[in-house]
């Protein structure tokens, strides 16, 4: 907490000095590999909140025409995941989220997605039915609904 307060004090001092000297502080929007960093250099929003019709950055730079005018080509490459079917794409934060966002599971399986194996909160079975690809949330284990083709989510999985 002390480090954060010192950092904030230093930033405030720099901004105050820049204002006193009449300098304009404007940094272009950038990224931190996990989302979209707003121009304030503090607010980071998930990729899927860029060009969603709601201004999530204070100055609305996540909804600017130059960024959202020709989706997905106008987006920086780090915000986009191209599905196995070249006609489809999803936001980068939808890759490896356990859901079949591409429709062909290419955002969850295979070398393009490069997803880690199922974590402890998930049950691994492939293929699965419906919206999941290879991992089913353990909360769905033994719920009386078949999620794995093998039925392993009903007979072997423990919530």
Automatic annotation (TrEMBL):
Per its UniProt entry, which superkingdom is the organism in? Eukaryota
Q: Which Gene3D superfamilies did the record assign? A: Low-density Lipoprotein Receptor
| Domain (LDLRAD1-like C-terminal) ranges | 116-155
Q: Which UniProt keywords apply?
A: Disulfide bond, Membrane, Repeat, Signal, Transmembrane, Transmembrane helix
Per the record, membrane topology reads:
Single-pass membrane protein
Location within or outside the cell: Membrane
Query: Can you supply a Gene Ontology BP term from the record?
Result: vesicle-mediated transport
Coiled-coil segments, which residues?
Answer: none
Q: Name one Pfam family in it.
A: Ldl_recept_a
State the CDD domains in the record.
Answer: LDLa
Instruction: Give the GO cellular component terms, alphabetically.
Output: plasma membrane
Q: Which residues form the signal peptide?
A: 1-20
Give the protein's recorded name: LDLRAD1-like C-terminal domain-containing protein
Source species of the chain:
Meleagris gallopavo
């Amino acid at each position: 907490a002390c480090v954060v307060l010192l950092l904030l004090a230093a930033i405030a001092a720099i901004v105050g000095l820049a204002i006193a000297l009449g300098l304009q502080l404007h940094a272009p929007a950038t990224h931190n590999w996990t989302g979209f960093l707003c121009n304030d250099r503090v607010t980071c929003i998930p990729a899927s909140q860029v060009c969603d019709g709601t201004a999530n950055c204070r100055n609305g730079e996540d909804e600017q025409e130059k960024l959202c005018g020709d989706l997905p080509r106008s987006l920086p490459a780090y915000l986009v995941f191209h599905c196995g079917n070249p006609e489809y794409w999803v936001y980068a934060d939808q890759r490896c989220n356990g859901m079949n966002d591409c429709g062909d599971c290419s955002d969850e399986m295979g070398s393009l997605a490069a997803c880690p194996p199922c974590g402890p909160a998930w049950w691994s079975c492939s293929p699965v039915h419906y919206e999941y690809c290879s991992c089913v949330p353990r909360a769905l284990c033994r719920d009386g609904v078949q999620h794995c083709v093998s039925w392993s989510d009903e007979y072997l999985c423990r919530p």
